[in-house]
Design goal:
By secondary structure, this protein is α+β, with helices and mostly antiparallel strands. It has four helices and four strands; from the N terminus they run H-H-H-E-E-E-E-H. The chain has one domain.
């Protein structure tokens, strides 16, 4: 079983992390190729991939979740939401001065343009 290397947050209750060692996690599975080489640094594109991993994770979103989160200070493992919870999805057609977003991206005619807009990652040579 892996040993967790947790960081104790200020005012965190003693034993909160991993329930004082009672929580046991199975080892993570090895990611498939080419993800493994992107993560372990053996691919020429690893640096770019790791710098932009959040953008890649967001590539296929069709909506955005929005809410007003109440922060009460100190350690907060969950969030408290007050008021209305909503999804932002935009119209089916973008306005002329706005970039395509959410589901609008899937209606861009060129697959290459779709991917560029969806991932919003600028290619650079380094």
């Amino acid at each position: 079983m892996p040993i967790l290397q947790c960081v104790k947050v200020q005012r965190e209750t003693a034993g909160l992390c991993c329930a004082s060692g009672k929580v046991k996690l199975d080892p993570l599975l090895t990611p498939p190729q080419p993800l493994k080489t992107l993560f372990d640094g053996s691919d020429p594109d690893s640096s770019h991939f790791l710098q932009h991993i959040l953008e890649y994770n967001n590539c296929f979103r069709m909506t955005s979740f929005g809410a007003n989160i109440i922060r009460e200070g100190g350690f907060m493992p969950t969030c408290k939401i007050q008021g209305q919870i909503y999804h932002l999805h935009g119209s089916m057609v973008p306005t002329p001065d706005e970039p395509h977003q959410f589901l609008q991206i899937y209606f861009i005619s060129s697959m290459v343009d779709q991917l560029n807009v969806r991932c919003n990652i600028q290619e650079h040579n380094s």
